[in-house]
Amino acid sequence: MKQKNLFYIIIASGFGTGFSPFAPGTAGAALATIIWIALSFLVFPFSLFLITIALIIIFTALGVWSSNVLEPSWGKDPSRIVVDEMVGVWITLLAADAGNVYHALIAFALFRLFDIWKPLGIRKMENLKGGWGVMMDDVLAGVYGFIILLGGKWLIG
Predict the structure, then answer these.
(1) CA distances to 2, 23, 33, 115, 150 from 81, in Å
(2) pTM score, two decimals?
């Protein structure tokens, strides 16, 4: 296997979590949540916010790119590609307070709920071509999770 292809596989599979025999999307989102929680204890809150935005931008671009490369051999939106779940949960985590594990777990649950249920146009995003279709449904699920988490925090105080 060429090193170039290995790079695409590592990125698309969420550092291998996409090869989980049970719920690979959940495994990818869980890894992203764990990374965010760890970072939340290591950096200042504003730095965490900026790092999370950087992760979203970088991994969205890498996700579209690697999905475009791998879809011809792996099939349309294969379960092994979980970088989209990582990006989606990071979007929802933008509404979580740094160091608040409960917020992180709620963000994870909200994202997975929207990702699995696919309401309000999320499913339509899958119709986009190539890597964009792979990524954008999870981006939108992440946005919905962000809105609900932010609204819930505002209501509760």
Answers:
(1) 19, 12, 17, 14, 28
(2) 0.95
